[in-house]
Each structure stands twice: as structure tokens, then as C-alpha cells.
Amino acid sequence: MRSFVSALAGAAALLAAAVPARADTDIKFALDWKFEGPSAPYFVAIDKGYYKTEGLNVTIDSGPGSVAGIARIAAGTYPLGFFDINSLVKFRDQNPDKGVKAVLMVYDKPPFSIVTLTKTGIAKPKDLEGKILGAPAPDGAFAQWKAFVKVNGIDADKVKIENVGFPVREPMLADGKVDAITGFSFSSYFNLLQKGLKPEEIKVMLMADYGLVLYGNAVVVNEDFAKANPKAVAGFVRATIKGIIDTVADPEGAIKSVMKRNETGDEKIELARLKMAIKDNIATEWVSANGIGGIDRDRMTKSIDQIAITYDFKGKLPAALDIFTEEYLPPAAERKLK
User: Fold this and answer.
1) pLDDT in tens, 12-60
2) In the chain, pLDDT over 90 holds for what percent of residues?
3) Which of 73, 208, 251, 326 is the most buried (most CB within 10 A)?
């Protein structure tokens, strides 16, 4: 009997040795932009092994902007990415057959901004009347212009819009060729500093501080991928939240993970950019009270109503949970900032 049991045990050991270890799930993740300070949480999650613990092999690519990259997720080129949720609302309306949904809110307040110089005398939104606004046509901030105009009582006919390219936007403002620009706060501000302007010469008006209730960038997923790999999506969300929490707690440490992958960047500038994003966009009062990653459904509903000011929906206005799902979020206790 003992020899029979030993034989069984030996057979089981041989069988176990013949079965390969579980392979990690490969995930290509698309950022909205370059490897800059605000991208730190994802690289922290890689470097600290948070994705690996979830059985994920994550690679990260830079992106073409917070709007254009959504099509990459819809096409399945990337299963997950980091893009503007307001643009996702429009994309879903224009492409009802394309399944893309937000699963993790990162920018509780969007970085959409009007950026100007103090010498222009523009101190509040109404002061844009009679001025020239430089705005790239595909810019995520400029996409909110009509709503910004309405909530601030601006006479849009009195503002000249100059369609400018992304690379020349800040240089044109610095050279006085336009009076203000639209852009992401933590991009335009530091681009102007690099043009030789001093902090006291730059004025940033966050649209969220002037009537817009919109959310910002979120992690979005290809729904076909999510249906086939729900554990992988939940694991990615959980690991990313850990990366965000660590980044907020220690930005000086987190920026090292970015600079390892951006050797030409200026660490001092990228750290300052990251801290600006944390303060203005990530670690908001609501997030401090409710944790990273979720949404207020009433606010999301109001934000969709506000999008309708700037965009004519082909179909009916979506509900909040048509755009954002909470099913992959870990419990609130795991999402609290330190």
C-alpha cells in the first residue's frame, strides 16, 4: 500500500513538472502623450512589481494626444489606454458599435486651461473679449470652448480664434502673436518656462475653476478584451491605483521611474509638472474623501449635459454608467490616499 501511495505521489510530481507555470497576460498600454511627470504612476506600478503580482506583463507606449488615441483602443491595437473621458463620450456617440469604456478615473479635475501672460491684462475669462486665442483644432481643452464661453458669459464673436499647431502654440504666446492659448495646464505652463518666462509672468486659468464640471483623463478599455479578460482588467486597475497612491505619497521617488525612460528630460521640470498634476487634477478634495478611481454619478451626468453644449449628439445622451463602469474597481478602502 505504501509503495502504491509513493507511486501516486511520484506520478503527481512528474505531472506538475510537465505543466508549465502560468504565463503572464501581456498588456500594451497607451498613454495620451509623452513620458512626462504625470505618467509616473504606471511606471511606478511596473518598477514596484504591482502589475507582475497581478500576473500582467505591461508595456507602455507614448500617445498622440488625449483625443486621437481612443481609436487605438476601439480597434484593439491597445486593450487599455489613458485618454480624455469627454472625448470618449463623443467617440461612443459617433461609433456606437465600438465598445470602449472608462474603468478608472485618474484626473478628477481635467487640466483643460486658458493660459496667458500677465502683461496681456487677461485676469478672468471675460477679459478674453477683444483678444486673439491660439487653439489647436484637435486640442482637448479647445474642445470645451463653447461650454466655457456659455458658463462665463463671454461674447464669442469678440474673441478671434487662431488655429495653431501644438509645437508653435506656446512660442506664439511667448512672442505675442496670440494673447492666450488653450492647453493642458501642466504642459503649457512648463513649456512657457522653458521659453524663458518667469512663473509670475504666466497666468493659468483652469476651466474647472470657472464653471466646468467635466472630468478629465481616465483609463479606458476595449470592451471585447474586458469581457474575455475580466481578471486582467481588474488586476491592471488595482495595480495602477497602487501606483497612483505611491506617486501622490512620494512624487520625488516616483519621478525616478519616469526619468529612467526619458533620459533627455529635465528631472526638475518633470517633478514640478507631476506635483502640479497631483495638486490640481489627481488628489482633489473629492478624491481625498472618496478614494482614487471612482466618480460621482450625478456630476458625471451633469458633465455629459455640459458636453452637449459643445457637441451635437447623434443619439440620446448616454447615462453615466454607459461611459464609466465601476465593476473593476477594488473596495474603497484599497483606494484611499495615504
Assistant:
1) 444 444 444 457 999 999 999 899 999 999 999 999 999 999 999 999 9
2) 89
3) 73
User: What is the CATH T-level fold of the domain 112-209, as seen in this structure?
Assistant: D-Maltodextrin-Binding Protein; domain 2 (3.40.190)
Give the pLDDT confidence score for residue 140 in this predicted structure.
85
Which residues make Cβ contacts (< 8 Å) with residue 170, sequence separation at least 6? 181, 183, 188, 191, 192, 195
pLDDT digits (tens, 9 = 90+) for 313-336: 999 999 999 999 999 999 999 999
220 forms beta bridges with 81, 102
Please give the pLDDT value at position 273. 96
**Dihedral (Cα; 139, 142, 143, 147), 10-degree rounding:** 170
Asked whether 232 and 56 are in contact (CB, 8 A), the reply is yes
| Burial (0-12, 13-18, 19+ Cβ within 10 Å), 111 | buried
Which letter does DSSP use for residue 114 in this model? E
- CATH superfamily, region 25-108+214-335: Periplasmic binding protein-like II (3.40.190.10)
**Residue 145: is it exposed, middle or buried by C-beta count within 10 angstroms (0-12/13-18/19+)?**
buried
What pLDDT shows up at residue 89? 97
* 216 in Cβ contact with 107 (< 8 Å): yes
pTM (predicted TM-score): 0.90
Q: Which amino acid is at 59?
A: T
State the chain's mean pLDDT as an integer.
93
Q: Determine whether 209 is exposed, middle or buried from the number of CB atoms within 10 Å of its CB (0-12, 13-18, 19+).
A: exposed
Exposure string of 228-262, with b = 16+ CB inside 10 Å and e = fewer, is ebeebbbbbbbbbbbbbbbbbeebeebbebbbeeb
> Is the model's pLDDT at 147 over the cut of 50?
yes
DSSP assigned state of 19? S
Same fold, 25-108+214-335 and 112-209: yes
Domain coordinates of the chain in residue numbers?
A: 25-108+214-335, 112-209
